Amino acid sequence: MASVIIVGTQWGDEGKGKIVDLLTAYADVIVRFQGGNNAGHTIMFDGHKFILHLIPSGIFHESKKCLIGNGVVIDPSVLLQEIDNLTSKGVSVEPGKLLISERAHLIMPYHKAIDLAREAKAGKTKIGTTGRGIGPCYEDKIGRRGIKIGDILDQDLFRAKLSETLEEKNFYLEKYLGAEALSFEEIFESYLRMGERLAPYVTNVAVELEKARKQGARILFEGAQGTQLDIDHGTYPFVTSSNTVAGGACHGAGVGPTTIDEVMGICKAYTTRVGGGPFPTELSDDIGLHLRERGGEYGSTTGRPRRCGWLDGVILKEAVRLNGLSSLTITKLDVLSGLDPLKVCVAYEYEGERLDNIPGNIKVFSNLKPIYEELPGWQEDISAIKRLEDLPENCKNYLKFIEEFTGVPVNIVSVGPSRNQTIVLRNPFES
Q1: Do 219 and 178 share a structural domain?
Q2: Which of this chain's residues are annotated to bind IMP (predicted)?
Q3: In which domain, by residue range, is 254 found?
Q4: CB 69 within 8 A of CB 55
Q5: pTM reported for the whole predicted model
Q6: Which of 239, 259, 279 is a domain's end point?
Q7: Residue 124 pLDDT
């Protein structure tokens, strides 16, 4: 029995989907615990490319159970579209194989309308959200006026809650944001229909997890986004609206912290981020372009080009501390082939002072200068290498530097997008 949490250590897009898919072969239950369809995990299966926004990637494995926890916010139209798309390609998405927490909050049409209208109104000061209503949905959840998926299974309860909320939302949309009001009947009828389809999937996920744990199941908790997008600990306000750190798995799925055995952090061999916000190691030169094109750094959900830069060791150390990481996975190591020298940010400079930790002041964070340590690069193509000892010496030294700098062992190394382009030094479910 083992319970393993997988989290991103940077600003998301670290390649968590591939690693979750890899480890799913050894897990019995896979749980998504936070975020919404602003996240996208790209999976290659049977020669097809799938981008999953809500359903855990364990869905491709016949014997696995996939759970969507209460910490996730769900756009039911997106979820049903995802179910239909998988089903049409021969992937089973039956109730029982996929289960959804009755306590998960729903993204409503007014959440998306508000999200888009706010960004348009903000102009140059916009945060750079995906416009999918994630933030406004979490706002309503915290404001105790949200609508949960269990609510739409009770027609009278849903009517009362929607009626009360929509009047306020339409006033805000029309009078402040200058957008169009939304129809009560259209929302009510469409969500009832979607609720009917989703009803067989809805259950108490926390209870299901307790049953699984008592039966000795191996449980994999799958996070979205990355540590620096955490609402409390990230580069606020340029963050997402949920807790992306490992602790979020406990309250986002309904398990106690003492049930967790390992926390694995996924770290790209360099650093990327999408949208606005500070990025100390960002490169706007040919090296940055090399990283973007060689690494295929375009958002799986939005298609937006990602900002690219050298590995930020300060950000990584912060992730180690905030998540209590017990191991690291380094992804896209192959993208660094041909670059020499390589640089890793080991501290920052601000107004002549060295900073070894991330400042809480966003204005200070936006004006940091990275302090780099240079390491020799390698020229060899490493994408077909299967064993750590066969990697170029400078490549092994790069990994060793990361281990020594963070104090955390590197247990998995990804050298390409396919599942078989992975060097597994230690499997958390087999140790």
Answers
A1: no
A2: 13-16, 38-41, 130, 144, 225, 240, 304
A3: 3-101+200-259
A4: no
A5: 0.93
A6: 259
A7: 63
